[in-house]
Write a structure and sequence with these properties.
heterodimer; A: mainly alpha; two-stranded antiparallel ribbon; 77% helix; B: alpha/beta; Rossmann fold; 9 helices; globular
């Protein structure tokens, strides 16, 4: 138990070290892609708290990504350009939305939960799309300059420096998620996933745990959104759209739900594959679709599940 | 004082009465067996005591506290613990993790997320003790769905006992067990300290007569007899209803 957490920390350290070295060696094109993959990995990890660990298949997670990105962007352009304040605003907005959505969706389970999370995310998307005076509608918000931002010698305007910043945030957030998942709270979430009736009978307030899971997950989703907006320097309604919700879910399924490294592997695989394939053919979505089907058929527990089966045939 | 007091309870499912006008009192420390043919309302009775099923009429009291409208989790904190007819464990977690979830259910830090659960020495010690006491330590690392059915039933009872309940509901604790496993579970239940009041549903007559101080017989949602095992065994009417199809 102790050792498993220690092993995970060691693996995580290796991963971060490898990415750090890769960031020093590769060209800025690849470093930019790695930044994107890290942001998606963080976003996938946040959804996996709900999907893989609590057993809540939310198909509206883009709402938190979107509101984090938009809140930070709107604050940046209209109020103040301090990055940390923008970050706090993005996280706060995502946390509030998570509480609100949690209160609305947590009475439902299964496919109803899936549909209501999708519907609520589409509500946010529609607001962002149509509230032109604030969000600039489908043109999106542009010109979010990051060139002036500096932190411990990292200039956000430089692709390599921003990558290092995102890598640092990713490392800290992932260690945080690891601790949460191994805490009494995290084990309770997996208990709820396995049998909520048993958890109630043991004396747990299942509803409150789910709400807190929503809050944690949504806030980290918002963090990914803030990192995204300062990476791209723009945001449009797509960030809150159903394609983003579905794509992040596919990342988790591809890598393996309910594992620490599954969502990370899934995010890197999909970001790099979609960029790689789209540079070869315009029909890259078709090929991605085939890959998803193959994974679901041959590795229903994702890539990490495949390895776990090889290592531990009885499990 | 009665540990469990059920007054004139009725439960209907879509117009069909599963339990109808049932009343009984169970004194503290008693082992009470519930017998009856399939569909007699035994599990529904347990579900209404446990809070899993809402009542249409009547009341349920635990140690003189009215729990009729109390949520399931709060009844647990009143000292009520139970197992289910169909095993409800956490199948993809290990035996130890299952026990840990039972132990930490009443822990003040059960919501904490800033420390791993392994740093809570008191939780870990209580889990070790629980598994040692019940002889499950050697299987602690096994994923529960890979345990034998007998081990799973045993684990369910052990988890129900983790927080020192005052009332324990066992829904068919020996169903589906081999003869050897049945002896094990029967011994386990018989050896429970007398400050725990035990209500159990059992189809195996030998087990029921062996464990129970008193037996309540249900048929079609109503109580048709109550008494000590010897009285129940001698009651011709009960025998006819219970074994009706076989004769």
């Amino acid at each position: 138990m102790y050792t498993r957490t220690a092993v995970n920390l060691a693996q995580l350290t290796l991963l971060v070290a490898a990415l750090y070295i890769a960031g020093k060696l590769l060209s800025s094109y690849w470093v930019g892609l790695m930044t994107e993959a890290l942001i998606w990995a963080l976003f996938a990890l946040s959804l996996d708290i709900l999907l893989g660990h609590t057993g809540l298949p939310s198909l509206g997670h883009a709402a938190f990504f979107g509101i984090g990105a938009y809140a930070a962007a709107i604050w940046f352009l209209n109020v103040g350009q301090n990055f940390w304040v923008c970050l706090a605003v993005g996280l706060g907005a995502a946390a509030l939305l998570a509480l609100l959505y949690g209160l609305l969706v947590l009475r439902t389970v299964g496919v109803y939960f899936l549909m209501i999370t999708l519907a609520l995310a589409q509500v946010l998307w529609a607001i962002v799309f149509s509230w032109r005076s604030v969000t600039n509608g489908d043109d999106g918000i542009r010109n979010i300059g990051r060139d002036h931002i500096e932190f411990v010698g990292l200039r956000f305007g430089e692709t390599g420096d921003y990558f290092l910043f995102v890598l640092g945030v990713f490392a800290i957030a992932t260690i945080g998620i690891l601790v949460v998942l191994r805490s009494p709270f995290g084990y309770s979430l997996r208990g709820i996933r396995e049998s909520s009736a048993r958890m109630e009978a043991l004396g747990y307030n299942v509803w409150l745990y789910k709400l807190l899971a929503f809050l944690v997950s949504g806030t980290i989703g918002g963090l990914a959104g803030v990192l995204f907006v300062f990476d791209k320097n723009y945001v449009n309604p797509e960030a809150a759209g159903v394609v983003v919700s579905a794509e992040v879910m596919l990342m988790i399924i591809l890598g393996g739900a309910g594992t620490l490294f599954g969502p990370i592997i899934g995010a890197f695989t999909i970001v790099f594959l979609s960029h790689g394939i789209s540079s070869i053919t315009e029909r890259w979505n078709l090929i991605m679709g085939v890959i998803y089907v193959l994974v679901v058929v041959f590795a229903p527990n994702g890539v990490t599940g495949l390895f776990a089966r090889v290592r531990q045939p009885a499990d | 004082m009665s540990a469990v007091s059920v007054r004139a309870v009725c439960v209907t499912f879509g117009g069909v009465c599963a339990v109808e006008d049932v009343s009984f009192d169970i004194p503290t420390g008693e082992r009470r067996g519930f017998l009856g043919p399939n569909g007699a309302g035994k599990t529904t009775l347990f579900n209404l005591i446990g809070g899993q099923v809402p009542l249409n009429a009547g009341s349920v009291r635990l140690f003189d506290q009215d729990v009729t409208r109390m949520p399931v989790r709060e009844r647990a904190h009143c000292g009520l613990s139970r197992t289910f007819q169909i095993t409800k464990l956490f199948p993809n977690l290990t035996l130890r993790e299952n026990a840990m979830l039972a132990v930490q259910a009443f822990h003040p830090s059960r919501y904490s997320m800033h420390r791993t659960v392994f740093t809570y020495r008191d939780i870990q010690r209580a889990v070790d003790e629980l598994l040692d006491t019940w002889g499950l330590s050697d299987k602690a690392g096994t994923t529960v769905r890979h345990l034998s059915y007998g081990d799973q039933r045993q684990l369910e009872i052990v988890m129900a006992l983790a927080n020192k309940p005052r009332v324990l509901l066992l829904d068919e604790p020996t169903a589906g067990l081999s003869p050897a496993e049945t002896v094990l579970v029967t011994g386990l239940v018989s050896a429970l300290p007398r400050d725990i009041t035990v209500l159990f549903i059992e189809h195996d007559m030998d087990v029921a007569f062996q464990i129970a101080d008193r037996i309540t017989v249900l048929n079609k949602g109503r109580i048709i007899g109550e008494g000590e095992p010897a009285e129940i065994r001698a009651n011709v009417q009960i025998r006819d209803i219970y074994f009706g199809k076989m004769n």
